[in-house]
Design a protein that fits this description.
The structure is a homodimer. With about 350 residues, chain A is an alpha/beta fold. In chain A, about 40% of the residues lie in helices and about 15% in strands. The first copy, chain A, has a six-stranded parallel β-sheet, with helices on both faces. A six-stranded mixed β-sheet of chain A has the order 7-6-8-9-10-12, sandwiched between helices. In chain A, helix 8 packs parallel to helix 9. The longest helix of chain A has 16 residues. Strand 2 of chain A pairs antiparallel with strand 2 of chain B. The structure holds a DNA duplex (30 and 30 nucleotides).
Chain lengths: ~350, ~350
DNA sequence: AGAGAATTCCAAAGCGCTTTGGCTATTTTG
DNA sequence: CAAAATAGCCAAAGCGCTTTGGAATTCTCT
């Protein structure tokens, strides 16, 4: 059933039927009812390819997916996706993932914009002067950054959590508990979130006249194994830290294992706070010693980003609004006063 | 730059330019060279919306993503996606995720097929008589199932791993080591993979005149917490099992924690074998006691499915070929002879 | 009553591509 | 050498929608 048939059936022009269906004002309410009714009865659905060709709108939001045999997609992505999907479903949006060589995403961005394949895109895991942000900004497609860049000479819309604040709070708590030597097991420090977290820790330490020893800071891919290795290296130093802030629950698994392997205890010998993105399948309260966390649901962020993208597409949101979510500090058994 | 402009520039008709570019035979090689050359020089790229409207082909593969606030997307998905993306990238395929109410995916399947939004789809986590398989089969869109149905009265193309064989081997090893009471901590037993794994365990036990006690079998969502709970329940029974087969590494984390909480040891008191889908961020050899696993890279499966979908789209693959991959049994420290 | 405004509808022109059917040279064949 | 086949190209007709630019009718107001 296409527009031609439907309009013929109603003895109306395609114009009128189209307008009736798309809510244009210049059509009699009575007529509109007839049209809408008939459309529903016959299950008419406008062909999206045709509509897209005519309007340039696709009803899809895009994401450029960095791939390559050496590239691992972050497991956080799936949680983010859950949230995005929740919103997208109820608003008839589809999501298109365009795989791109991790070292050349620009080509892909240009392509999907030039081809009008999607109405908006989002960007995740931004680095401080992320080229992608400037690129999509210049290309003029609606977008939102999940996270933030830094030192960019223009504004842009983003949604981020207060990483600095979160790790500031975490570190401040540890300092208050008497810890003097903190360590930070961080994610890839080319990414902004990691930089912000480090900044938060440093600021908290500085407030008490302390500093973050360079040897007490690790920046690695967020795997269990790296968490383990980092912790061993930290705890086998002369001036081993007595408290660790850790950027992910998965790494925290490795931290816990390493501490145990070394015959130390949490929180007796070392306190631990990790960031929790809220996975359904791994919960901090279920660690052998319940884990204190800075918590922020990445899933909710996904839903919010979808919502804002939809708003931007339809022109309801404009400008370069940045949105920063506060992060909860949830204290559980893994922190205690500094040992002896 | 569109076709009209390009052909005008070359003093050729749109027909000829189009044919030259798409490799049709009825165009002089010399002319084709000129066209291809000019197209490249001017960076001409056919507008996909127009092409799609004309041909009905979209160059995308689809996946219906079950969503809902109570629905958690499996973290395996992201690994699968990595593989799919690897292949898709090098073949200019995009992936469109269509979020659907988990309880009504049919509507979405019908929509994406009717709208010709994608050229092919894949289906994951199938149940034995999965409605989706019959549906897409009837709708006539190219598809491949990742996993298998069961008791379906028609054939269809799929890619699966030998779940039954894998768990058969695992259980057989445990029996050979003297274990008489095995337990199975399985995924949702409405899904085929879980059924197959249980079948494998039962078959191995039966071969030695043993059976799988109903109280020794758990079927739960694959989270760390559920692994923990299941293990506690198992080990606190009178006739506690001395060996556990477990359907995921994530659950295995919970198993290990529970065993430790109960003051038991792996493999001294209980042997453990888990299935490993090969996550980059959690590796069995890094468990406190290195974990024996049945291993199969879900990422490779993703790449293979993309490859086969592409083949089906272009007509290179036809019919209902089922492909079953063998699974490696990797023995590490977590298994030992049955205690006492 | 008649001019002007508003309402309601339509024909036709895109959007940019593929494909059908046909037309002219050139080559091959009996 | 005429007839038939082939090569190479083109004009135009879709694909199914939106939107422009009227046209016809009805309403409003002096």
């Amino acid at each position: 059933m296409n527009l031609k048939q439907l309009s013929h059936m109603l003895a109306l022009s395609q114009t009128t039927v189209s307008r009736a269906l798309n809510g244009y004002p210049e059509v009699n309410e009575e007529t509109r009812r007839r049209v809408v009714d008939a459309a529903k009865r016959h299950g008419y659905r406008p062909n999206p390819s045709a509509r897209r060709l005519a309007t340039g709108k696709s009803g899809m939001i895009g994401y450029v997916l960095p791939t390559g045999s050496a590239v691992d997609i972050d497991p956080h992505f799936v949680e983010f996706l859950s949230g995005l999907g929740d919103y997208a479903r109820s608003h008839d949006l589809d999501l298109v993932l365009s795989p791109a060589d991790a070292d050349d995403q620009e080509t892909t961005y240009r392509r999907i914009v030039a081809n009008r394949q999607v109405d908006a895109v989002y960007i995740s895991s931004p680095k401080p002067r992320d080229r992608r942000i400037a690129l999509v900004n210049a290309l003029g497609i609606p977008f939102i950054v999940h996270g933030r860049g830094e030192n960019l000479d223009f504004d842009y819309p983003y949604l981020d959590i207060d990483n600095e604040g979160a790790f500031h709070e975490a570190a401040r708590l540890l300092v208050q508990l008497g810890h003097r030597r903190l360590a930070l097991i961080n994610g890839d420090n080319r990414e902004t979130f990691a930089i912000h977290r480090e900044r938060g820790v440093r600021r908290a330490l500085a407030a008490s006249g302390l500093t973050l020893d360079e040897r007490h800071i690790c920046s690695v891919a967020m795997t269990e194994e790296n968490g383990y290795r980092a912790t061993r290296r930290l705890l086998e130093q002369d001036d081993a830290p007595t408290a660790i802030a850790c950027s992910s629950l998965i790494m925290a698994l490795g931290v816990v294992r390493a501490v145990r392997d070394l015959g130390r205890a949490i929180p007796g010998d070392v306190s631990l706070i990790a960031h929790d993105d809220v996975f359904p399948w791994l919960r901090p309260e279920n660690f052998s010693v319940p884990l204190s966390t800075t918590r922020s649901s990445i899933r909710l962020a996904g839903a919010r980003i979808a919502e804002r993208l939809a708003a931007r597409i339809s022109g309801l949101e404009e400008g370069a609004r940045g949105e920063v979510w506060p992060v909860d500090l949830v204290v559980r058994g893994s922190v205690a006063g500094a040992p002896g």
